[in-house]
Amino acid sequence: MSNGAQALIRTLVDAGITTCFTNPGTSEMHFVAALDSVPEMRAVLALFEGVATGAADGYARMADKPAATLLHLGCGLGNGLANLHNARKGRVPMLNIVGDHATYHTQFDAQLQSDIETVARNVSPWVRTSKSTQDLCKDAAEAIGVCQGPPGQVATLILPADVSWGEGGVPAAPPKITPPKPADDATVAAIAQALQGGGKKAILLGGRALREPALMAVARIAAKTGAKLFAEVFPTRIERGAGLPPVERIAYLAELASVQLSGLDHLILVDAKPPVSFFAYPGKKSYLVPEGCQLHTLAAFTQDVIGSLDKLAKAVNAGQTKPVLQAPRRPGRPRGKFTADKVCKAIGQLMPDNAILVDEAQTSGIMLPMYTAGAPRHDVITLTGGAIGQGLPNAVGAAIACPDRKVIALAGDGSAMYTIQALWTQAREKLDVINIIFNNRSYAILNVELRRVGASGAGDKAKAQLDLRTPPIDFVQLAQGMGVAAKRATTTDEFLAAFEHALRTPGPHLIEAIVPPA
User: Fold this and answer.
1) What separation, in Å, do the N-terminal and C-terminal C-alpha atoms of the chain show?
2) Are residues 148 and 210 in the same domain?
3) SS3 assignment, position 348
4) Could you tell me how far CA 17 lies from the centroid of its own chain?
């Protein structure tokens, strides 16, 4: 007879969840022991919960299926919240399993007792505490169905210790997935009329609309109607490179985004929300859709993106229209003074076919989209929720989901320090990841924001809160201390040599690029 934990893991595996990123404690020990009873489940240890949640996020983005996390009580879940926030904003499917005290123990308000459900609801639309071993697997199957969506969601299943160790667990069947429906005929007809009429038109793509099948369909529509193609500021995952339609991302800076969207008469949303600025700024608009622009939604988060685009393509007679595709192009080897832009140019010149770029470069990565536009086919994962510390953990998950692909993770020095423990997991799992740390010894993006928000009176004390020069962070020693081969680059030639070595040598690498602030 199975206990609850054994039956739960079997339920996960039968539903296709075969990877669990863990940072367990005492309340999760029966789940940990049960891992050996279900060999199909891969368990990956993280030294910090934010690495576990970020890795599960990166895994799901690239595997197109959920991963699980195993977290210890409310405190452990709280440590993982920032990357769960990023996953929620990216509509990424993920199942958190959070251990809790035994049901009869909670009355004593022990030292680690907390309200886990309240913590979870910040990032998880579906939250449930399983009350019995007999109900556990039914709850798990429901959670799996919810997190798979559409839209993808973070689901949190709270597992009391006695429910986990209780006997009589029975695995549940995988949830039945109801296929999403495409846009209705009236919506498609109205949008087709807008696209075929006069005025300036654009289509804003997000989520599932930034993958090849949808991109090819929407590129034919754009070529037929003259609509401009935009992507969300920070896409969950976008397929790019030679042979795919080029799509312009909305700028992070609201001032630039307003220029991009200026003069639009019609904006069509496909698995995306209307563009807004990241923050409020004195005297500037937060809602970026131009005045007088008519907003249309072709496919909401719950709808069939491909089916909706196919219907629209037929409605505008774009089925046989030749889409505009990105021509192959490399930017050339960088030369001269070493800067962040030279790093981006080197990536565009040298990156291999089918690479995965995990982009948390912040200000240092401004030129990355331009330099990689014509590179061989690749995927880009971005900072969907804006909570830094996503990049290195995302790379862990992406590398486990796609072990035959080279993963290149770009992070700022401040961002990298949030979840630097991800390097240890990369070494432990022997993952093929190149971590590039832009060390400009500054929270450079915040120096920009200090000026943009109009904060007055910022002197030495204020600026010191954004400065990382003293003491200098040594990423080479940090990486080597966690088992990752590392080199420092202070010149363009040094970076090229280190990058080429990492490209031809399997396993995790770190390159610390000492660059001036962008």
Assistant:
1) 61
2) no
3) helix
4) 18
Which amino acid, residue 269? L
pLDDT for 283 = 84
Q: Does some domain include residue 333?
A: no
CB atoms within 10 A of CB 156: 28
**Rounded Cα–Cα distance for residues 276 and 11 (Å):** 40
Give yes or no for a contact between 442 and 357, defined as CB atoms under 8 angstroms apart: no
What is the structure's pLDDT at 121? 97
Beta strands in 193-331 (DSSP E): 201-205, 228-231, 238-240, 248-249, 266-270, 294-299
Question: How many domains, in total, are found in the chain?
Answer: 3
356 shares a domain with 240: no
Looking at the structure, tell me whether residues 22 and 88 fall in a common domain. Answer: yes
Domain boundaries, position 251: 185-315
Residue 331 lies in a domain: no
- From 315, 330, 352, give the residue that closes a domain: 315
Q: In this structure, what CATH number is given to the domain that contains residue 207?
A: 3.40.50.1220
| 355-360 and 294-299 strand pairing | unpaired
pLDDT for 447 equals 67
User: Which residue, 375, 449, 435, is CA-closest to 406?
Assistant: 435
Q: Give bridge partners of residue 128 from the DSSP assignment.
A: 157
- Residue 151 pLDDT: 96
- Per-residue pLDDT, 456: 66
User: What is the model's pLDDT at position 23?
Assistant: 98
pLDDT-flagged residues of the chain (< 50): none
Confirm if 85 and 48 have CB atoms less than 8 A apart.
no
**Tokens encoding 315:** 């409605």
Same domain, 387 and 292: no
